[in-house]
Write a structure and sequence with these properties.
Order of helices and strands: EEEHHEHHEHHEHE
Distance between the termini: 11 Å
Largest sheet: 5 strands, parallel
CATH topology: Rossmann fold
CATH architecture: 3-Layer(aba) Sandwich
Number of helices: 7
Shape: globular
Number of domains: 1
CATH superfamily: 5'-nuclease
Radius of gyration: 15 Å
Helix content: 55-70%
Strand content: 15-25%
CATH class: Alpha Beta
Number of strands: 7
Strand order of the largest sheet: 5-4-3-6-7
């Protein structure tokens, strides 16, 4: 993966992988080469981990998540991230006419994006539509696979 620059022009070498990347990887192995070629360091998002834990149905899946948590530092949304997410979601709902269900669906994605932004990290996802929409409201470094 080439190094990327933030909107502020600073070099970023921290990457956060969205749940869509982890799930695609575990199901199909389609991101093996890209993950191995990430320049810099990978950090986990506590929000992504929560999303992944929510879907666990097998011991092998819980073992995998436990291994991730032992091997990668975890970034967690701050109080500022939580408050900002509410304000942004209110604006998005007003602008886009979203249902309460859609706003709820976007909340975790917005928290992941704001947390990555706070740490100067690049968020890597395969969920283009939602994260590009979020970028219209708050800029952050994004790479779509």
């Amino acid at each position: 993966m080439p190094e990327s620059t933030s909107s502020k022009g600073t070099l970023t070498n921290v990457s956060v992988l969205d749940s869509s990347i982890w799930i695609d990887q575990w199901r199909t192995g389609c991101h093996s080469k890209r993950i191995a070629s990430i320049a810099g360091v990978v950090r986990l998002s506590s929000v992504v981990q929560a999303e992944l834990w929510r879907g666990v149905t097998k011991k092998s899946e819980s073992d995998l998540l436990n291994t991730l948590e032992r091997n990668y530092p975890i970034l967690t949304p701050t109080e500022k991230n939580w408050l900002e997410s509410g304000r942004i979601l209110s604006k998005m709902r007003a602008d886009q006419g979203f249902t309460p269900e859609k706003v709820r669906d976007l909340h975790f994605d917005l928290l992941i994006a704001l947390t990555a932004r706070s740490y100067g990290a690049c968020l890597i996802t395969s969920n283009r539509a939602d994260f590009e929409l979020i970028r219209k409201y708050r800029d952050f470094e994004l790479e779509v696979w």
